Automatic annotation (TrEMBL), chains A, B:
Known partners and oligomeric status: Homodimer which binds Holliday junction (HJ) DNA. The HJ becomes 2-fold symmetrical on binding to RuvC with unstacked arms; it has a different conformation from HJ DNA in complex with RuvA. In the full resolvosome a probable DNA-RuvA(4)-RuvB(12)-RuvC(2) complex forms which resolves the HJ.
Taxonomic placement: Bacteria, Bacillati, Actinomycetota, Actinomycetes, Micrococcales
Free-text function comment from the UniProt entry: The RuvA-RuvB-RuvC complex processes Holliday junction (HJ) DNA during genetic recombination and DNA repair. Endonuclease that resolves HJ intermediates. Cleaves cruciform DNA by making single-stranded nicks across the HJ at symmetrical positions within the homologous arms, yielding a 5'-phosphate and a 3'-hydroxyl group; requires a central core of homology in the junction. The consensus cleavage sequence is 5'-(A/T)TT(C/G)-3'. Cleavage occurs on the 3'-side of the TT dinucleotide at the point of strand exchange.
Protein name: Crossover junction endodeoxyribonuclease RuvC
Compartment(s) of residence: Cytoplasm
Gene name tied to this protein: ruvC
Length: 190, 190
């Protein structure tokens, strides 16, 4: 299975592609960053990111696109652009018939480090470990995109298929409850 | 000049096309709503809206696309979808080389009724008046899209061109100040 992870952002949008391999490991296929110039108008910037996402999907033909779930309560100065780039990534996948999965930052941390409250540095170190790299790719957005892709590979099976929500195992139910709690916490913080 | 107005929304996205005509009036070209089915996944819904926006732009070939400016502080339950649809409208315009203008709800109300705090019903009545219709188009999203397009036609000249910001007339400066105040108010409310 090949997953293309997207850490959405208007200035730097992390993109990472990984393949699953036997023994709970993953292989790095490609990693990079789609960029836009902050002096351009927002429509031109969104178009630039959209075109780069299209190129990545056409080049790597993923089975799934995993995107960070953006909350309305995130950083107010950047949340609109981030949400819009996430939307563009969803449309890029949908128009190719590629399924989309959204993962919260806590889910990503939990999947990669075993701990939903892990620091950014721990996540990056684990990403390098899992992929057999001597160090995490730079910038951080690129490594975060890989973490998202790994999170999707290693998530509890079936958790993201709506149809399966009604036939969850206890472990899956715990995961779903944790996901729900995260969302409510974020709302409460607001 | 032909303006295509977009009142962004994931369930109903209002779209209205108007031409400017002599004597501070405007002619209705077309009005409607792009829809998506709420039982579909978000990626499929965004793709559906995106395709309908593409069709509207190809059919009506506007000179400008005017979109409601979405604030992070808007209705939390819908703001992400609204922002994403606004982003799709921007990309649809940018990939055709059509300039994009963003207008706040207060700007739209002020342009159409002369009063930035006007009620929704006043705006709709004025839209019908301006376009010579016996009543405002339904649903409200469709009429709001027309109001956006009219707002763009009737805005103080040059206010939206970045290059012109440095050579504003006093009236333009007032408008810009009002725009700025609106944004700060929204922030303060938050």
């Amino acid at each position: 299975m090949r997953v293309l992870g997207v850490d959405p952002g208007l200035t730097r949008c992390g993109i990472g592609v990984v393949d699953s391999i036997a023994g709970r490991r993953a292989r790095l296929v490609a990693v990079g960053v789609a960029r836009s110039t902050h002096t351009e108008s927002i429509d031109v910037r969104l178009l630039a990111i959209s075109q780069q996402l299209d190129e990545w999907l056409d080049r790597h033909i993923p089975d799934v696109v995993a995107i960070e779930r953006v909350f309305a309560q995130n950083n107010l100065s950047t949340v609109m652009g981030t949400a819009q780039v996430a939307g563009l990534a969803m449309v890029a996948a949908a128009k190719r018939g590629v399924p989309v999965a959204l993962h919260t930052p806590s889910e990503v941390k939990a999947a990669v480090t075993g701990h939903g409250g892990a620091h950014k540095e721990q996540v990056q170190r684990m990403v390098a470990n899992i992929l057999g790299l001597s160090q995490a790719p730079r910038p951080a957005d690129a490594a975060d995109a890989l973490a998202l892709a790994i999170c999707h590979l290693w998530r509890p099976a079936g958790i993201l298929d709506k149809a399966d929500r009604y036939q969850m195992t206890p472990a899956q139910r715990q995961w779903a409850a944790a996901e729900q709690a995260t969302k409510q916490n974020v709302r409460r913080l607001h």
